[in-house]
């Protein structure tokens, strides 16, 4: 099992090709979430100046977690905040996921190491956080769930919880390598 390591004043990501493939798939799914197939807003002027017309929180729980209301008790203020910030936030999340995906490089036999710039390491940190938020929301991960042992081998949620734990471990390793 690979992970993030600090080498010669650089952060390196060491992965087995299967691990890189899993991460590439997850990052691709994250991109599908944050970059909608169709524009969220149909106002070209708003799009040109970087504000949206959408004021409603997303219906998908994962998107609502990735793009939460800023003012939970004030829907109008939350809507205005969303209108001015969500397009840029989506763009930043897209760039972070694409940066992480680009640094994986081509898969090869055996473990492979990828040296990361400081900017790439920060993109990885944020993309891993988004992956954990998305997967944790889909799985209903809470403090109570995390305190319990993993489900039995036959439980269909077990592999996804193992991936969630692995992403947590990767993110912790990156934080440690950065400090």
Descriptive terms for the model:
mainly alpha; 3 strands; about 180 residues; single chain; about 10% strand
Overview of the structural elements:
The structure is a single chain. A three-stranded antiparallel sheet has the order 1-2-3. The protein is built from seven helices and three strands, in the order ββααααβααα. It has one domain (3-178). The model has no long low-confidence stretch (mean pLDDT 85). It has 179 residues and is mainly α. A hairpin with a 2-residue loop joins strand 1 and strand 2 (10-15).
Strand order in the sheet with the most strands: 1-2-3
The 3D shape can be described as: globular
Task: State the secondary-structure class.
Answer: mainly alpha
Annotation, overall tally of beta strands: 3
Termini separation comes to 21 Å
H and E string = EEHHHHEHHH
Number of domains: 1
The percentage of residues in β strands lies in 5-15%
Number of helices: 7
């Amino acid at each position: 099992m690979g992970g993030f390591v600090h080498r010669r004043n650089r952060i390196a990501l060491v992965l087995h090709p299967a691990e890189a493939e899993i991460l590439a798939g997850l990052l691709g799914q994250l991109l599908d979430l944050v970059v909608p197939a169709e524009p969220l807003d149909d106002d070209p002027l708003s799009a040109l100046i970087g504000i949206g017309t959408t004021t409603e929180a997303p219906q998908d729980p994962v998107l609502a977690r990735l793009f939460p209301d800023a003012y939970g008790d004030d829907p109008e203020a939350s809507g205005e905040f969303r209108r001015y910030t969500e397009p840029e936030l989506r763009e930043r999340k897209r760039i972070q996921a694409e940066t992480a995906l680009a640094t994986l490089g081509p898969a090869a036999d055996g473990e492979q190491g990828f040296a990361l710039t400081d900017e790439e390491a920060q993109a990885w940190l944020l993309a891993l956080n988004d992956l954990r938020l998305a997967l944790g929301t889909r799985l209903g991960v809470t403090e109570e769930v995390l305190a319990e042992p993993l489900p039995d081998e036959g439980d269909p949620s077990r592999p996804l919880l193992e991936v969630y734990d692995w992403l947590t471990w990767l993110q912790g390793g990156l934080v440690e390598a950065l400090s």
